[in-house]
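Hi, can you check this record?
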Amino acid sequence: MSKKKKRATQHRKNEITRGIFEVLEKEPNKTFNYKQIASKLQIDDTEGRNILIKRLGQLKAKERIREFERGKYRSLENKLLHQGKIEVTARGNAYVVVEGLDDDIFVSYNKLNRAFDGDIVEVLVKPRRKSNKLEGEVVSILERKKNAFVGILDLHKSFAFVRPTDHKMYTDIFVPLSSVGKAKDGEKVIVEVLSWAKEEESPTGKVVEVLGLPGEHDTEIHAILAEYGLPYQFPAEVQRYADKLDTSIKESEVKKRRDMRQVLTFTIDPKDAKDFDDALSFQQLPNGNYEVGIHIADVSYYVIPDTVLDEEAYERATSVYLVDRVVPMLPEVLSNNACSLRPNEDKYTFSAIFEIDEKAQVKNEWFGRTVIHSDERFAYEEAQYIIEKQTNRIGEEVSIRGKAYDVSDAIRDAVLKLNSLAVIMRERRMKAGAISFDKLEVKFNLNEKNEPVSVYFKEAKEANKLIEEFMLLANRKVASFIGKQRPQKTFVYRVHDEPDQEKLMALNGIISRFGHKLNFHNKKTISDSLNKLLEDVKGQKEQNLVDTLAIRSMSKAIYTTDNIGHYGLAFDFYTHFTSPIRRYPDVMVHRLLQHYLDGGKAPNPEMIEEKCKHSSDMEYLASSAERDSIKYMQIKFMQDHKDQEFVGVISGVTEWGIYVEIIENKCEGMVRIRDIKDDYYTFDEKQYALVGERRRKVYQLGDEVRVMVKDTDLVKRHLDFTLLGKAK
């Protein structure tokens, strides 16, 4: 090639390079393929197109431009362009949460550009207006949170639509008749979104599963699971794999373990539990101290990495505890049989064994694989009976055997001594700044059709706290055993950050209406005053409201490799070691602990961190599904109490109405502002109140009111009340 031609070619390359930047930077929120750029630069010859394609590849490799998706390019620098998670509100608008930005970005309904709740999006921020609120427009969807939705099928002659029941899903989904399958008009289904072309008003999808008729019990429970992408049965290949496992106890394996079968051992669990994943052993040592073993089901012995069983357990990450059923992380052959520490059976366990003195101080510790033989299985009520009565005799009124029975002196003495040690450990934890959240749990008595016949509250007593303290001890000691080693080792920690000061100030404003206050002098006074608050409201009408608001003011506990300690427990080191049957992070902890006990090197922290994040995300989904199942059952319960008057506490105030929680059963419903007829009410945000314009009557957060059920909707999980007035 002549010098003249080389110069001409180089000149053209430079021109095309400048042109690429001009096109991309002129519209930084758009992506362009090479044909669109060629058109804007008026390149219509083969040589020019080849240079353009080559330069786009080179600029991308040098990270001077971005290839947003295959063959589509965008300008690299755009300070107004952010990535974040979009959260759609019930009204159809949304906020994009961007890491590193103090304020969330508001996105109006008409600027969502087909983004769904939970998607990871790119959002272009507009110049701030007078409101000083960050506003933006979604310009692209980077990652869909989910593409399957629960809804009601509307079947027409030549097409169908699915109306999603998720109030955050703002559009119907078009379904061609060929994609309806066996679904019938009006049935609740799961629909998978396949595409959403720009020229179409609605996305196109296909029905992938029929759940049943709306309002039917199994339909609604399966719908709750499906809404969160949670399974309700195991794939056939996973079930086959689990069923073929050899779950027998082998002498060759026993020889590799510390044999604890001759030491007094027992379990204490809820009376309806089937998966007993922890047991306690107890014996007094010749020096007067006590050896306490916390024995945990050795799930990692059966769940081997890179098997279909392990992959399924990881994907689920947790068992889901709905009101009427448990959706287990592991198939029943493991969760209720092989791994469950049932009485009078030899079991493989992973143990934390401590020598503890009379002052509940740990003198020695040992971690490793063991084999145990549980002597007794107690329900919490039975262990509580021993503690309260200090007796060998379990009364018929609490017995899970259907009749009164006796336990040995050794069992009685072990339970009483373990309880006294647990009391000391708990007091020490509280003095160190731990926060005591003993929130009442709402439970239902169900009939054979899984219909709620009554509501009761589960309260933690000494027997519950006994188990809690020794599980906390094992979790803390395992974490500190690894966490204090140098060089630092990759590990799974359960961390809990300090609460947000603004949330605590807001909590203080609300509780002041009930005569309580927080002390913000320092970290210790905050935790002490929080504990005093939680103790003072026990048995008061505002207890559940204050408990709920206090929990909401806290940061969320998560799994991570980055240890920052656990604020709520006042521990510098904490992990989850004690429930591997129902939590995947505990399986990870067992594997890592054994790996380090065997002298192994630290694995890749990024890989472990990714698994931690997935486990935290799945825990959140499971807890959301659990809350929804409680809400569903509360509405079902209230259907049979429509002519009854109730006294409740105003638990929330919004511009569209007030939420009222009934004192006697904790069912929460809404009184819509349009249904309060005695005046025209407006929302006063500062007072957390609705205020009548003419009579100035105030309905404020925490007020006691009288209500009746107006409407119950099991499908949408709505409970509406009629307001009768203030309680006298």
Remarks:
- The mean pLDDT is 91.
- The first strand starts at residue 65 and ends at 69.
- The radius of gyration is 30 Å.
- The chain has 17 helices and 35 strands.
